[in-house]
Design a protein that fits this description.
With 212 residues, this protein is an alpha+beta fold. The chain contains 6 helices and 5 strands, in the order ααβαββαββαα. The longest helix has 13 residues.
Length: 212
């Protein structure tokens, strides 16, 4: 029967509890990749940076150009007739890992219709003090209502102003759009909005296959 190794024995015991390094007790030392001494290698990195061209950005006088897929401020999109794409399902709030989104759904009526569905986002808020711009909310949105823009200038000295409301997040009205509430103009039901061939020059996204 093998006896347990007493405390302090082995490599850790021989070195006073420290991890034994390579090269001790006759072991082979690691091979160096450079003939320069270690301080010379360190100063070499410093001097190499001194002669490189410095890139100066004239911000904010010259706005910074971001990548096309940059995750910036959110936008709540509209249908071509102006109705809101948000149906108040709250899936974006459930998907947010930082709990930065708050949604309250409301019921549409024939006298006050804000979206093609039965419900719409009556209250929509995003707390940019919590948002980590991961994009999980836009992937969870079933109607492509919530997307992310290239706007990154969100700094402010007031914490309350960094909680964006629905009015601040809604996309602007384009030509041919009317601010809701108003009746549906693209069809008589939701299918005419979410499953249809887009008209020529329409801002609608091309959806040609009906989802299950």
């Amino acid at each position: 029967m093998t006896e347990p190794t007493p405390a302090g024995a082995g490599a850790a015991g021989r070195t006073g509890g420290e991890v034994e390094r390579a090269g001790r007790d006759g072991g082979a030392a690691p091979a160096r990749r450079s003939l320069l001494p270690a301080p010379g290698q360190g100063f070499g990195v410093t001097f190499a940076q001194m002669f490189k061209k410095v890139t100066t950005e004239q911000y904010p006088e010259v706005p910074k150009v971001t990548k096309p897929r940059y995750h910036g401020r959110h936008v709540l999109n509209r249908h071509p007739d102006g109705l809101e794409k948000c149906v108040g399902c709250e899936l974006c709030a459930w998907a947010c890992p930082a709990d930065a989104i708050y949604v309250e759904g409301g019921d549409n009526t024939e006298d006050a219709r804000y979206s093609p569905g039965e419900r719409y986002g009556a209250v929509y808020q995003i707390n940019y003090l919590r948002c980590i711009f991961c994009g999980l909310c836009i992937e969870a949105c079933p109607t492509r209502s919530l997307t992310m823009s290239n706007d990154f200038e969100l700094a402010d000295d007031d914490r309350q102003s960094l909680i964006y409301t629905k009015e601040q997040l809604m996309a602007p009205l384009l030509p041919g759009m009317e601010a809701p509430p108003h009746a549906m103009r693209l069809g008589d039901d939701e299918k005419a909005y979410y499953v249809r061939e887009p008209e020529a020059g329409s801002a609608a996204e091309p959806v040609t296959v009906e989802r299950a």
